[in-house]
Specification:
This protein is mostly helical and 203 residues long. It has helices at 8-26, 34-43, 58-61, 69-77, 83-87, 91-94, 102-119, 149-157, 159-162, 191-202, and strands at residues 167-169, 176-179, 185-188. Strand 2 and strand 3 (185-188) form a beta hairpin. The protein is elongated and about 65 Å long. It has a domain at 7-45. It has a three-stranded antiparallel sheet with strand order 1-2-3, with helices on one face. The chain is 46% helix and 5% strand. The chain has ten helices and three strands.
């Protein structure tokens, strides 16, 4: 196999990528070979001809609960370049990304939708509309609302109201509990946790 000369700066950058991959996918007692770090960069590379000229918001993606820098890079490489992109995604779309499993996909999608809702709290549904995308001014329904990022956000924000019979305050160690489809219940520490469980099981 031919040798590839690299500068000290390039080697430092590769080491940083390897550290991120180890933290995200391997854990405390594992290592990622340098060759795998290089392969990861090749796997996530997007040719200039396939980009639209926009710059992924890697820093913004890492603000999503459960998303580190390596996962943010993978999301961006798959076309989910902003928090809004992730919030509008179905969890199934995220599981197609290398390194993201079913549980993590649901958690990331719900966290992104919740984060978008927190940022826009009170501004998404004004006096002229309800949480379902209907206008009370002329009675017309937004025909495209079902597929829009805004509708996904509204859905996430209205989960507590839409499924109010499926969650409640609890008397146990955690302040809330959520009913699951199999008839059991799962405790939740915060209302954001309640939203995530509702999003995962009842969306």
């Amino acid at each position: 196999m031919p040798d590839l000369p690299v500068s000290e700066a390039q080697l430092d950058a590769l080491e940083s990528v390897r550290d991120d991959l180890e933290a995200a996918y391997v854990g405390e007692y594992g290592t990622v070979p340098m060759a795998d770090a290089v392969q990861y960069l090749l796997d996530t590379y997007t040719p200039p001809s396939e980009t639209d000229g926009s710059t992924p918001d890697i820093e913004g993606l890492t603000t999503i609960d459960g998303v580190g820098e390596a996962t943010a890079e993978s999301l961006a490489a798959a076309g989910f370049e902003t928090v809004a992109d992730v919030a509008a995604a179905a969890p199934g779309d995220l599981t197609e990304i290398r390194g993201i499993g079913d549980e993590q996909a649901v958690s990331i999608a719900a966290a992104a939708a919740t984060q978008r809702g927190d940022a826009a709290d009170g501004s998404e549904s004004g006096p002229g509309s309800d949480a379902g995308g209907h206008s009370d001014g002329d009675g017309r329904e937004d025909e495209d609302a079902g597929a829009s990022p805004e509708n996904t956000l509204k859905q996430a924000m209205s989960l507590l109201d839409a499924h109010d019979e499926r969650w409640r305050e609890a008397s146990g160690d955690e302040p809330y509990e959520v009913d699951l489809p199999d008839g059991s219940t799962e405790p939740a520490r915060t209302k954001d946790d309640v939203k995530r469980l509702l999003f995962k099981h009842w969306r």
